[in-house]
């Protein structure tokens, strides 16, 4: 079935904004400027300030949700499902997970390349699968276990590519690259906890995804903005790249922005792109399919890699191509893309295994939420 113009627009928007999000964050890291009190010119290394900007973008999703809701209620026959009422504090735990994982990843992005950053984020499949078995009672099929094992192999290949290219990289030391890679994988453990909590709450309380993202953005923005105050006074030695060697020097960030306005352009690109990316991703799932969303999310890794090569941000390494292909196969198997493709071929449709477990699980969570609401 051919896509409509609106569906094509959504797919293009998701691919574009998803790629801009990572590229803008890396672009900000590459700027240099003098800091406060005319401190010597240094790199813009402020991962926690960047994370605040990302949560501001997520917070915009909450505003978008209420605007869409108001517009829908003006219709003669409203069609938008606003979901059940729920305690917003339910989303505080996943918001804390999101905040922690995001901050760790932005620290890691200062140490490794944008393409490796995006590829290694694929590790979330491994931990999400294992945690969903442990805490959601999900049963993974053989293809999903195979997807997890292949993803692990892909991560090893990408890590090996970073290890080999680290000897030739003038921008980052080998130890920094490997540390950055390990931090990204560590962050995916926390991101997996976030996803499991989100799935449980979103389906159990029938929460609109835009409202869920926006609520987490609200908590993340408020909490991390307040944490910037103590971070300004916590010394971390050589771990930090700011002049005062503290966990986060927010004043230095603003001074650098004032002396190099291009930095604010990169930060705005990060903030605006995350808002549109979340909106487009949710819309793609609704208008097309979750499988299409997975494919587009994998394709943005290619876009980020090609753009990084074109801009001279990194060097070509054949192992990265192999690593990406292996990760893509792992993601495809885990997300049951092979069944989706076979179902489109009439002669192979009978080979597709019918598995209604995810739908049944979501129905169970939704029923639990209704029972709790009635009691």
UniProtKB/TrEMBL annotation:
<dbReference type="Pfam" id="PF06027">
    <property type="entry name" value="SLC35F"/>
</dbReference>
<keyword id="KW-0472">Membrane</keyword>
<dbReference type="GO" id="GO:0005739">
    <property type="term" value="C:mitochondrion"/>
</dbReference>
<feature type="transmembrane region" description="Helical">
    <location>
        <begin position="218"/>
        <end position="240"/>
    </location>
</feature>
<protein>
    <recommendedName>
        <fullName>Solute carrier family 35 member F6</fullName>
    </recommendedName>
</protein>
<feature type="transmembrane region" description="Helical">
    <location>
        <begin position="145"/>
        <end position="165"/>
    </location>
</feature>
<dbReference type="GO" id="GO:0022857">
    <property type="term" value="F:transmembrane transporter activity"/>
</dbReference>
<feature type="signal peptide">
    <location>
        <begin position="1"/>
        <end position="24"/>
    </location>
</feature>
<feature type="transmembrane region" description="Helical">
    <location>
        <begin position="89"/>
        <end position="108"/>
    </location>
</feature>
<feature type="transmembrane region" description="Helical">
    <location>
        <begin position="120"/>
        <end position="138"/>
    </location>
</feature>
<keyword id="KW-0732">Signal</keyword>
<feature type="transmembrane region" description="Helical">
    <location>
        <begin position="48"/>
        <end position="69"/>
    </location>
</feature>
<keyword id="KW-0812">Transmembrane</keyword>
<keyword id="KW-0813">Transport</keyword>
<dbReference type="GO" id="GO:1901029">
    <property type="term" value="P:negative regulation of mitochondrial outer membrane permeabilization involved in apoptotic signaling pathway"/>
</dbReference>
<dbReference type="InterPro" id="IPR009262">
    <property type="entry name" value="SLC35_F1/F2/F6"/>
</dbReference>
<comment type="similarity">
    <text>Belongs to the SLC35F solute transporter family.</text>
</comment>
<comment type="function">
    <text>May play a role as a nucleotide-sugar transporter.</text>
</comment>
<keyword id="KW-0496">Mitochondrion</keyword>
<dbReference type="InterPro" id="IPR012404">
    <property type="entry name" value="UCP036436"/>
</dbReference>
<dbReference type="GO" id="GO:0008284">
    <property type="term" value="P:positive regulation of cell population proliferation"/>
</dbReference>
<feature type="transmembrane region" description="Helical">
    <location>
        <begin position="260"/>
        <end position="282"/>
    </location>
</feature>
<dbReference type="InterPro" id="IPR037185">
    <property type="entry name" value="EmrE-like"/>
</dbReference>
<dbReference type="GO" id="GO:0016020">
    <property type="term" value="C:membrane"/>
</dbReference>
<keyword id="KW-1133">Transmembrane helix</keyword>
<comment type="subunit">
    <text>Interacts with SLC25A5.</text>
</comment>
<feature type="transmembrane region" description="Helical">
    <location>
        <begin position="177"/>
        <end position="197"/>
    </location>
</feature>
